[in-house]
Amino acid sequence: MKPKLHLEPAEINRSLRMVIIDGLCSEVVVCLSSGAILVGAALLLGASNFQIGLLASFPTLCNLAQLLTILLIQRYPNRKLITVLAVFLAKMPLLIIGIVLWRNTQLSFSILLVFMFIHYFLSAIGGAGWNAWIKDLVPEQQLGTYFSKRTRLMQLTNIAVSLAVAALVDYYTKYKGDELPNLYGIYFFAAGLIGAIGAFFLIQASEPKQEISGGNLGRLLLEPLKNTNFKNLLIFNAAWVLAINLAIPFFTVFMLQTLGLSMKVVILLTVVSQIASVAGLPLWGKLSDRYSNKSIIYLTAPIYICCILLWIFVGIYSRALPNLILLVVLHIMTGISTGGINLALTNIGLKLAPKTDAIIYITVKNMVASFFTALGPILGGLLVDYFATRELQISISWKSPNLESVAKLIYLHEWNFLFLLASILSFFSLRWLGKVQENGEVSHQLVKRIMKKRFRAGLKERLLVGNIITLHAQLKQILKRKELPTKE
């Protein structure tokens, strides 16, 4: 259990495998106790928009508990022990929620809030130690490749579990509505149990010896703010997560309540997004290690912003098919861009944090991002309630003796106002990214040209179209060879 001064390559590889297995267990926990399932349970208990926003803010708001992790590690310099113990204890509230729901005991939304707060609070304590531990465990030149592999496997697990979860929720909703709380109880209990099993694998990973300064906690927390480059990263990260989290937590509520989609359809759309993310992660991982994380953000963030903006057109017409097609396209593009953005934000934070006091820098980054990520859903919930009685409609009408038609161009109401505001704010947040300096930084324009060149080369090599495109050049070369004089 004690940290080691030096780890052999075989020991590092085995530890990284254990971290991946724990990650797979953690992803099952996410599938069974968060996202659409948590929103569904909250709606079942009669939660309001503001309450759902408050619940969505807990995972990041509780990251302030990472301050406690620093104090614990200063006194007991064993990140592995602190992390594993916190991760294990964090699953106990999920077991309690599961038992209460499964036994049909009356559960108020307030009690659900309390237990989920405890779950996220303890998870945050473990998360701080985990981040610093993994930074020292994973070789820096392999950060992109390793985390893209780990994330890819976790998302594949998420897809498989989500499909089964969606099918059961849809079945119970249609045929066994009275027993739906029992199903949610099974989900939360299974999440707690599998999460505890993940802690068993995590404890088998080795921990390198850390370097951390002693002294006053307040002084240590100010150190990252004195680093101009890291401070610029904090400002960009805060502006970005605040902007996008005005809207993201409410996509599920919008689809369930306004569009009237079933839980199965909502989770299937989430699966589509995850498949797209899995498909793009190997590319983003290689580009992260070879070029820079900033270039990945510059490439993927505009796509993500456009996706948020296009949500204002979802539901503008009552026909289901156009809405469903647009939702599928949005989830595909969101998945591709999200995979790159999340990977790059994680890696750039790990790269810019110095080896000494890495946990301080990472914790400050997580705390700043957590505060603004938590603030986003709370403000979003208030804005939705404010815009609930307001709407803006722009349309074109045509009248003739035989035809009278009205075509909606823009129809903004409670949710769409929120999506428009989030897309505008996220666009302006990119201005701060240019001030961040990253080691080995490469222009995103160069990376874009390289990607275009590889894409075209792939078409020529793998597809028949490539041969057709170069057919004229091949014929020209043949004719030139025929025109060459022969030697006597």
Q: What report would you give on this structure?
A:
This protein is mainly α and 488 residues long. The chain has 20 helices and 2 strands. Strand 1 (392-399) and strand 2 form a beta hairpin. Residues 459-472 have low confidence and may be disordered.
Features:
single chain; 488 residues; mainly alpha; Growth Hormone, Chain: A; two-stranded antiparallel ribbon; 3% strand
Q: What's the main sheet like? A: 2 strands, antiparallel
Just give the CATH class of the largest domain: Mainly Alpha
In CATH terms, what is the architecture of the largest domain? Up-down Bundle
Report the structural category: mainly alpha
CATH superfamily of the largest domain: MFS general substrate transporter like domains
User: How many beta strands in the DSSP annotation?
Assistant: 2
How much helix is in the residues?
Answer: over 70%
Count of DSSP-assigned helices: 20
Strand order of the largest sheet: 1-2
Radius of gyration (CA) equals 25 Å
Report the β-strand fraction as a percent range. Answer: under 5%
Span between termini: 83 Å
H-E order: HHHHHHHHHHHHHHHHEEHHHH
CATH topology of the largest domain: Growth Hormone, Chain: A
GO molecular function: transmembrane transporter activity
Keywords: Membrane, Transmembrane, Transmembrane helix
Transmembrane segments: 20-46, 52-74, 81-102, 108-133, 153-172, 184-203, 234-259, 265-284, 296-318, 324-345, 366-389, 409-430
InterPro entries: MFS (IPR011701), MFS_trans_sf (IPR036259), Sugar_transport-like (IPR052528)
